[in-house]
Specification:
Belongs to the LysR transcriptional regulatory family. InterPro entries: LysR-type_TF_proteobact-type, LysR_HTH_N, LysR_subst-bd, WH-like_DNA-bd_sf, WH_DNA-bd_sf. By secondary structure, the protein is an alpha+beta fold. The chain has helices at about 5-20, 20-30, 30-45, 60-90, 100-120, 170-175, 230-235, 250-255, 285-300; strands at about 50-55, 60, 95-100, 125-130, 145, 155-160, 165-170, 190-195, 200, 205-210, 215-220, 220-225, 245, 260, 265-270, 275. The chain folds into 3 domains: about 5-85, Orthogonal Bundle (Arc Repressor Mutant, subunit A), CATH 1.10.10; about 90-160 and about 275-300, Periplasmic binding protein-like II (D-Maltodextrin-Binding Protein, domain 2), CATH 3.40.190; about 165-270, D-Maltodextrin-Binding Protein, domain 2 (3-Layer(aba) Sandwich), CATH 3.40.190.290.
Length: about 300
């Protein structure tokens, strides 16, 4: 069996990853009809049915799973060879698909990623900003920046910052309502309620730093709720309430005096920042370089 080109293999992987001819077409820049034609060419060449199709989904057959696995490894090897050649020339080329939360993207990454791209003229950065966790494989993401703990151990992850969620408020809010002395005082204050992956964050966990007491939850209330960290932070900066976010997201507003961290003797629930890759298989050189640069940047902060 011979392939006319490698594009049909890329279409095969996109179809398997997304479970949709239409979604595979979007990823590959092809029409649904072109994706269907590529699948037919492969099935004819192999003499096997690669996918079971229903009105709602398309899934690999047993033969299709075998072909998907081998196609992925073949394309990984080709990409690795290309990456080595480019790395030897000191060039980064291609596209890196990155996803991050709204607060992190706006407060930290927008400027840094722009500067990183400027250093590598042949490199393209595609940043998807979302407070929902995208499916790295299905959505074609090369690198996700996520506040852990991470639920899926099949991902490859690198710790960038061992952070926690903390309670923050603006100086104007604290001037009007007073500075709470203990986390329990939050129950009497307006708080901005977050939502994370469908979970309403109206119980904020705190752990005393002295190590002599156990962690405890504080029920909080407020008239404002949001699943977007950037919006929640904007409300907090306007003095609308106390917010409970990762200290990584609040680093610059605190440095500028726009926000103040509360309860220095307590830590909120862990929210370590990870660089997450879709699998333990081959990682393009350009992605490795970006992750290394990010790690060095966070370490310097």
């Amino acid at each position: 069996m011979e392939f006319d080109n490698l594009d049909d293999l890329r279409v095969l992987l996109a179809t398997a990853d997304t479970g949709s001819l239409t979604a595979a077409g979007r990823r590959c820049g092809l029409s649904t009809a072109a994706v269907s034609a590529a699948m037919k060419r492969l099935e004819t060449a192999l003499g096997a049915r690669l996918f079971d199709r229903t009105t709602r989904s398309i899934r690999p057959t047993a033969e299709g799973e075998v072909m998907v696995d081998h196609a992925r490894r073949a394309l990984d090897l080709i990409a690795e060879g290309q990456a080595k050649l480019r790395g030897e020339r000191g060039e980064l080329a291609g596209t890196i698909h990155v996803t991050a939360s709204s607060a992190m993207a706006q407060r930290l990454l927008a400027g840094w990623l722009g500067e990183f791209a400027a250093l590598h003229p042949r490199l393209e950065i595609d940043l998807q900003v979302s407070d929902s966790w995208l499916d790295l494989v299905k959505d074609g993401v090369d690198l996700a920046l996520r506040n852990g703990p991470l639920p899926d151990s099949s991902f490859a992850a690198r710790l960038l910052a061992p952070a926690h969620r903390q309670a923050f408020a603006s100086p104007e809010f604290l001037e009007r309502h007073g500075t709470p002395a203990q986390p329990a005082d939050l129950s009497a204050l307006d708080c901005i309620i977050g939502r994370l992956r469908g979970r309403r964050l109206d119980r904020w966990r705190f752990t005393p730093r002295d190590g002599d007491h156990e962690a405890f939850d504080v029920p909080v209330h407020g008239r404002l709720a949001c699943d977007n960290a950037a919006v929640a932070l904007q409300w907090a900066r306007q003095g609308r309430g106390v917010v409970y976010l990762s200290e990584v997201d609040l680093h610059e507003p605190v440095q500028r005096g726009e926000m103040q961290r509360l309860f220095a003797d307590f830590d909120g629930e862990p929210a370590p920042l990870y660089a997450v890759l879709p699998s333990h298989r081959f990682t393009p050189h350009r992605v490795k370089v970006l992750v290394d640069a990010l790690a060095a940047w966070f370490a310097s902060r």
